[in-house]
Amino acid sequence: MLAKFNVNKVLVSIMVLFSCCLYVQLRTGYGGTIYHNTVQLFGMTSHQTNVSSDEKLHNKTQNISITKRLELEQRLQRVRHYCNKLEIDQAVESSHDYRKDNGSYDSSDWYLDETHRIAFCQVQKVSSTNWLTTLISAVEADGTRSSAKDVGFEDLVSPRDKNFKFSYLKRYDLVDFTKTNASGQYLKFFFVRHPFERLLSAYRDKFQAVGGWKRRNFRREYLKYKHPNQPIEPSQIDGLQLSFKGFVQYVLDTPNRYLDCHWQRFVDQCMPCLIRYDFIGKFETLEADAEAFLRQAHLDDKVTFPKREVYYSQQSSAAVLKRYYKKIPIRLAQKLYEKYEIDFLMFDYKFPADLFKY
After folding, report:
1. Is the Cβ–Cβ distance between 190 and 280 less than 8 Å?
2. Are strands 118-121 and 110-113 parallel, antiparallel or unpaired?
């Protein structure tokens, strides 16, 4: 009787061990070695012990990191939570209604990669050009470009190949896009950045840097705001010295719907309460998020995202932020936060109080 009890106990232990190993493999995609050894130990056979290289690659793509996948899913859930909590309704009945309500104003930059079924909402000053070049290099028919750095800016404006399957959507086209089945057939994504850091980046690029006709246009628009109904002379544009405080005031005085796309609110630019996104990345974790997205899109074997240090100064972002924002009165900073509050809440950013401590 005792011997029978011991045999049953051993069998139960074996089954528990086997079940645990099987659960690990099915749940995470890992533990293959443990499972294989367990199968061999007890003289069992299974097709799972002979996984093809393609299946291994698929598992690698799907299970890049359990922690990262949970983090990305939490971002999507947070956006949906605030869309519901704040009752943000971005629905528009038709593209005709959008044109009627908004005139010709359009600050949306949406791109479709029809080859890989990817839809990208471009958010300027969040490595947006790098993302465009990365996606374009993946679409290249000749397959000779393995890095986004190999793509020239002319490819963004006028691709050489007439069959180039990479298209641009204006905001009113996007409205119709979301009302059809097409939106559900694309992997939709965009990247965000701390609103205050992005705002400073835009100021330094568009108002402090010199040269370029586009930068002259930004200065011209500011002068129109500062001196309405007055002619703008070229000498005024070239000689403009705009402080960061003056720029912040300019942003605060501009209605949200007319903010330039380089400092427009994320919620207005990518309309996450209208479009159900599949992936939201962050500039603060750019390299890890870029890798995760390329794997999710099955592009990681076709293209690599440029390393951040190639394009950015080695100077500490915190030090740069402190140098500029310490000149902004706290009352002005609070108003700036209020203007972008929905972005702070929706994408889990905090008011950087330390920047304003003297």
Report:
1. yes
2. antiparallel
DSSP element (H, E) containing 190: strand 187-192
Rounded to two decimals, what is the model's pTM?
0.74
For all residues of the chain together, what is the average pLDDT? 74
Four-point Cα dihedral 90, 92, 97, 103, nearest 10 = 20
pLDDT-based confidence at residue 230 (cuts at 50, 70, 90): confident
Looking at the predicted structure, is the pLDDT value of residue 264 above 50?
yes
Q: How confident is the model over 325-329, as a mean pLDDT?
A: 95
Other C-beta atoms lying within 10 Å of the C-beta of residue 170: 15
172 CB-near residues (< 8 Å, 6+ apart): 95, 98, 99, 102, 106
What is the widest separation between alpha-carbon atoms in the chain?
A: 105
Secondary structure (3-state) at 9 = helix
Distance in angstroms (rounded) separating the CA atoms of residues 203 and 128: 16
Half-sphere exposure of 136 (CA within 13 A, CB side): 24
CA atoms within 13 A on the CB side of 92: 19
From the list 333, 335, 206, 339, the residue with the least C-alpha distance to 267 is 339
Bridge partner list, 111: 120, 168
Q: Which residues pair with 178 in a beta bridge?
A: none
| 323: number of Cβ within 10 Å | 13
Distances (CA, A) of 24 to 6, 30, 313: 27, 7, 44
Give me the residue label for tokens 């309405």: 228
- Between 73 and 33, where is the model more confident? 73
Give the gyration radius of the chain's Cα atoms: 26
The tens digit of pLDDT for each residue in 131-181 reads 988 988 887 743 544 444 444 444 544 444 444 556 777 665 666 777 776
Here the contacts of 61-70 (C-beta below 8 Å, separation 24 or greater) are 61/295, 61/296, 61/298, 61/300, 62/29, 63/28, 63/29, 63/30, 64/291, 64/292, 64/295, 65/292, 66/28, 68/288, 68/292, 69/292
Contact 160, 147 (CB under 8 A): no
Q: Which residue has the higher pLDDT, 251 or 314?
A: 251
Place of tokens 């965009």: 190
Does the CA dihedral 242-244-248-251 come out positive or negative?
positive
